[in-house]
Structures are given as structure tokens and as C-alpha cells.
Amino acid sequence: MQTDFTATRALFDIPEGLIYLDGNSLGPLPRAVPGRVAQAMQAEWGQMLITAWNNAGWMEQPARLGDRVARLIGAEPGSVTLGDTLSIKVFQAVSAALQARPERKVILSDNGNFPTDLYMAQGLADLLATGHELRIVAPEAVEEAIDETIAVTMLTEVDYRTGRKHDMKRLTAKAHAAGALAFWDLAHSAGAVPVALAECGADFAAGCTYKYLNAGPGAPAFIYVAPRHAATVQPALCGWLGHDAPFAFEQGYRPAPSTERMRVGTPPVLQMAALDAALDVWDSVDMADIRKQSLALTDRFIAEVEAACPDLTLVTPRDHASRGSQVSFAHPEGYAIMQALIARGVIGDFRAPDILRFGFTPLYIGMDEVERAAAILAEIMATRAWDRPEFHARARVT
């Protein structure tokens, strides 16, 4: 059955008149979330107190919600668990890959990767102090750079700045042919584009749930471990809840026999309640429909903006196979232009040094909003409305 995007739009609480093109940074509030969080607070925490860990299923949340996320990223049941932050999950996955390839010392990434991934990898290499190297190349040079020295490729499928999309299947196959493992960051993929981790043969993946999955600020990250690795992967962060029997209170660490071993700390129960409600939106959604509509929306936005705003330079690929669900334009005054847009009710964001970034989520964005946003941007550019002192004042979050 075809996805009804009019129906999904009604599931979100977006202020009247606002055009929200920043779901690739923070998804909007699903209407069901406040009630579900209130239930977790009042009926569960308030009335059950500590018994809610058993009676309300709090301890099972990471695995149960992991399976719901798994459906959206083409992962096998039982292969995804939730908790902690994306940075932590990147560290876990990359460290596990290095332990599985002890004779190799190179982590391969690209210069379009999100900084936290690079920071985590470099920090891990420095911590190990055994000659490991983070090797960074241009995105288009990744395939050629994969050779027998690589322990793990660490790539974000969709570039956070440009929206450029890597070919997961091809690059994973190339890594495996060279004897390397493949880790994928899905921060800008999960809920935005169809993902097929199992089909592509990915070894590890991680992502956040506060962007396209709409679970709210601070929502937990997820980590994927291919079933073929689940019983042997060695977690560098050996948390209590990754233990095979946490309530045996053993002195030594004995990992759980599944992806559960990648759990670290106590699950954020209230945030997971928000995620649980947010994922309900996806029960009636087909990712193929999302992709088709996303490409239509981004095509229209590109055409409208390029026709009316010659001073803006498109940095997002035109080719559908190479594009995620966002569009980015470059301009030396990108920050001020974005602030002027936000003041007019069109919310996108800015990424240094000069990128205006717009996310397109068919769940709540339609063609009318796309055309209005492009028209407002054209007016701002034509009148130089962005060139006011208040639009040049830098806020802490851009």
C-alpha cells in the first residue's frame, strides 16, 4: 500500500506557517510523544517505581526498539541495540573492528565524514599507542584507497554537509575483498533513504535517532553488529549491561552472547519512551515511497533555487544515486542568509565554512512547502535582506 503523506503530516506537531527543513539535524515532535513520555513518567516511574524495570519492560527497551530500528535499516532481527550516544557507538564499533584485525593498523575515512567520527577514531588510535593510523582521503578517492593495509573503513553513508551518498554495497565489497571490515555511520541515512545493511554485508553500523527518526534531542543512538560477528566481537567499553548476567554481579566481565554485549550504561528510559512513540509513525511508511518523494522534493528545490538565485552554488550531487535527502548550497554569507530565512519562517541550518543546508522529510514536507521556501530564499537574495547586523551575529549553535 502506498504511503499516505497527508496522513503522516498530521502525526507531527509543527507550528502553523513554519517550513521545517532541518529534520536532518533535529526531527520535529510527533504528536504521540508527550503522552507516551507522560505515561512512562507517571504510570511507570511514578506508580511502579523500581519495579518498572521488570513490570514496564524497561530493561528490554534497547533490544525491542533495536528491532524496530532494524526494520528501517535492512538489518536482521536481534542485530541492533540502543543506548548511549553516537560517539560512543562509533568508538565501540571501530575498536571492535581493530581488535578483529590485529595485524592491520589503518582506519580509512574521508574528509566529508562528521568530525566526531574522526575525533573518536584518532583518539582511539592515540589511546592504543601501537602504531594505528587514521587515514583520511577525499570522498571520491575512498574506493581506490582501500587496500591490504586497511583494518576498517569508517564511512558516513550520507555526507552531513553536502548530502553526497556513498555506494554502501560497492565499498563494503571492496573492503571485504581487501580483507578489511566495514563500519557505516547512518546518522543521515536512517529514516531518510533505504538502507540494506544485511544485503550489503556491512560488519558494523551506528546512527542516531533524533534526526530523521524524530525521537527528540538527546535521544539514544543505535549500533548494529552483523550476526556473524555477534558472538565474537570484543567491546572495548565493557559496561554492566553488556554483561551476560548483570544481576549475577560477577567481578569479571563476561559478555552477553549477542549484540546485547554492546550495551554499556543504563538505558535512558524516558528518551526511549519518546523513541518508541516516534517509531509508530513508521508503521505505515514504505521506505521506497520515502525515497521517491524525497528525490522529487529535492529535485524541485534545486531547480527553483538555481533558477532564481544564481549567486548560490549547489554542492549536493544532482545524480539521484549519489544524493541523500538533503540539499546544500554554498555562499560566502551563508550564515547570514540562513538567519534571514529562519526569521521568515523557513528553518534550515548552516555548516561552516559556507554551507546552507536543507533537509527534506516527506513525512511532513510537501511540494507546496518546497516551492514557498525557494520563493522566500529568492526574495532574500534579490533584496539582500540577509545583510542586516542581527543576521551576522553568530549564535553558539549554527
Automatic annotation (TrEMBL):
It comes from the Bacteria. Its EC number is 3.7.1.3. GO terms for biological process: anthranilate metabolic process; L-kynurenine catabolic process; L-tryptophan catabolic process to kynurenine; NAD+ biosynthetic process; quinolinate biosynthetic process. GO terms for molecular function: kynureninase activity; pyridoxal phosphate binding. The modification N6-(pyridoxal phosphate)lysine is found at K211. Pathway: Cofactor biosynthesis; NAD(+) biosynthesis; quinolinate from L-kynurenine: step 2/3; Amino-acid degradation; L-kynurenine degradation; L-alanine and anthranilate from L-kynurenine: step 1/1. Pyridoxal 5'-phosphate binds at L86, S87, F114, P115, T116, D117, T156, D185, H188, Y210, W240, T266. SUPFAM superfamilies: PLP-dependent transferases. Gene3D superfamilies: Aspartate Aminotransferase, domain 1, Type I PLP-dependent aspartate aminotransferase-like (Major domain). Pfam families: KYNU_C. It catalyses: 3-hydroxy-L-kynurenine + H2O = 3-hydroxyanthranilate + L-alanine + H(+); L-kynurenine + H2O = anthranilate + L-alanine + H(+). GO terms for cellular component: cytoplasm. Its cofactor is pyridoxal 5'-phosphate. InterPro entries: Kynureninase, PyrdxlP-dep_Trfase, PyrdxlP-dep_Trfase_major, PyrdxlP-dep_Trfase_small. Keywords: Hydrolase, Pyridine nucleotide biosynthesis, Pyridoxal phosphate. Homodimer. HAMAP family: Kynureninase. PANTHER family: KYNURENINASE (PTHR14084). Catalyzes the cleavage of L-kynurenine (L-Kyn) and L-3-hydroxykynurenine (L-3OHKyn) into anthranilic acid (AA) and 3-hydroxyanthranilic acid (3-OHAA), respectively. Belongs to the kynureninase family. This is Kynureninase. The gene is kynU.
